[in-house]
Design goal:
The structure holds 2 protein chains of 2 kinds. Chain A contains no helices and 11 strands. In chain B, the strands form 2 sheets. In chain B, strands 2, 4, 5, 9, 10 and 11 form a 6-stranded mixed sheet that branches. Chain B has a 5-stranded antiparallel sheet with strand order 1-3-8-7-6, with no helix packed on it. Chain B starts with a strand and ends with a strand. Chain B has no helices and 11 strands. By secondary structure, chain B is mainly beta. Classes of the chains: A mainly beta, B mainly beta. The interface between A and B is medium-sized, with 28 and 27 residues.
Chain lengths: 115, 109
């Protein structure tokens, strides 16, 4: 089992461009969450996908959008990139463990640099 | 005030020392996670606990639900333990995590 995988590992974009990041969840996991981690900060929740729909969303603008495919993999899209979007983007997949508790696994992250 | 607070923010230690990192939270939780992040790297889950204590090798995690507090202990610390340790909580019936800002640990030989 490869665990959670993300691609690409690093990416450099220019302000105003658009970017797509990809995540494949751990085998058997049906929910994918995306987090943004700015340098020196803790991760911040962007949104979560379950059954191909956005189930929860954090405090991020509409420039951030996503998608989940039937095989549970997910994409994060960011339009009109700003310098402040430079961060490590983490994907986590989860599965209900029991009693409202979720087992969570994290991917290695995609480091996005906007110049 | 953040919903998850960690202390200290930075910690240096000599190899072999016993280390404690603390986490306090202000929301009702279903589980608390201790995570490890190496520089430039992704996140590795160390523990998920909702009560009591868990041990894995030299790492021990405890949680006191009544006091809304958890600690991560590292016994006989080693330079390879140098990393950022992050506390995160999951609220009931949701798998969205709320993260602390992390504790940067450096262990010197």
């Amino acid at each position: 089992d490869a665990g959670v995988t993300q691609s690409p590992t690093h990416l450099i974009k220019t302000r105003g461009q658009q970017v797509t990041l990809r995540c494949s969840p751990k085998s058997g996991h049906d929910t994918v969450s995306w987090y943004q981690q700015a340098l020196g900060q803790g991760p911040q929740f962007i949104f979560q996908y379950y059954e191909e729909e956005e189930r929860q969303r954090g405090n991020f603008p509409d420039r951030f959008s996503g998608h989940q495919f039937p095989n549970y993999s997910s994409e994060l899209n960011v339009n009109a990139l700003l310098l402040g979007d430079s961060a490590l983007y983490l994907c986590a997949s989860s599965l209900l463990y029991g009693q409202g508790v979720y087992e969570q696994y994290f991917g290695p992250g995609t480091r996005l640099t906007v110049t | 005030k953040n919903e998850v607070e960690q202390s200290p923010q930075n910690l240096t230690a000599q190899e072999g020392e016993f280390i404690t990192i603390n986490c306090s939270y202000s929301v009702g939780i279903s589980a608390l996670h201790w995570l490890q992040q190496h520089p430039g790297g992704g996140i590795v889950s160390l523990f998920m606990l909702s009560s009591g204590k868990k041990k894995h090798g030299r790492l021990i995690a405890t949680i006191n639900i009544q006091e809304k507090h958890s600690s991560l202990h590292i016994t006989a610390s080693h330079p390879r333990d140098s990393a950022v340790y992050i506390c995160a909580v999951g609220t009931y019936n949701t798998d969205k995590l709320i993260f602390g800002t992390g504790t940067r640990l450096q262990v010197f030989p």
